[in-house]
Write a structure and sequence with these properties.
The protein contains 8 helices and 3 strands; from the N terminus they run αααβααααββα. The protein starts with 21 loop residues before the first helix and ends with a helix. 61% of the residues lie in helices and 4% in strands. The mean pLDDT is 97. The chain has a 3-stranded mixed sheet. The protein is mostly helical. The protein has one domain: dinb family like domain (Four Helix Bundle (Hemerythrin (Met), subunit A), Up-down Bundle).
């Protein structure tokens, strides 16, 4: 097994749940609910130079990570809504690395993305908390993927995703002594 780069993956890689577990789903929802505050804490008091520092060589800046989390959360929320309202919809992936190069992701202050995360995660959490076990077994299919993804797996993925990127920023701060 290949060694995982601890700077790129400070909390390890995503491990999909093999089956539905109500306790794990509740933990994932709590992580999604908590992301905006956790991310705000990770970027608190960073100046523009620090925010424009890549979290690793060749990686995104801390600001790009914040904007990426807003982009990814928008996509995840919509995927959840589609999964709840359509029968196994095919959802389009987004070119994350290209989105991270757009002007808004490279030059906009992070506050608009942090505000988006506040509102979006409040709505997403409300939706997730309203879902039944049957709802979490509904599926989406990522365009080009071989199999469908149950919404409980999608929820776990994005709970991990938020913690993953927040840890990248926190790790950068620790390494730099900020």
């Amino acid at each position: 097994m290949a060694t995982v780069d601890p700077i790129r993956y400070p909390i390890g890689t995503f491990q999909a749940p093999e089956r539905f577990d109500a306790r794990e789903v509740q933990e994932s929802i709590a992580a999604i609910r908590g992301l905006p505050n956790a991310l705000r804490a990770a970027v608190a008091d960073l100046n523009d130079e620090q925010l424009n520092t890549p979290y690793r060589d060749g990686g995104w800046t801390a600001a790009q990570v914040v904007h990426h989390l807003a982009d990814a959360s928008m996509n995840a929320f919509l995927r959840t809504k589609w999964g709840m309202t359509e029968d196994s919809p095919t959802v389009k992936p987004f070119a994350e690395s290209e989105w991270a190069k757009t002007a808004d992701a490279c030059s906009l202050p992070i506050e608009p993305s942090l505000l988006m995360l506040d509102g979006l995660h409040a709505r997403w959490t409300a939706l997730l908390e309203s879902m039944t076990e049957e709802d979490f077994h509904r599926t989406v299919r990522l365009e080009g993927a071989a199999k469908e993804m149950p919404l409980y797996v999608l929820t776990a993925l994005y709970a991990w995703h938020g913690k993953h990127h927040t840890a990248q920023v926190a790790s950068l701060r620790k390494r730099k002594g900020w």
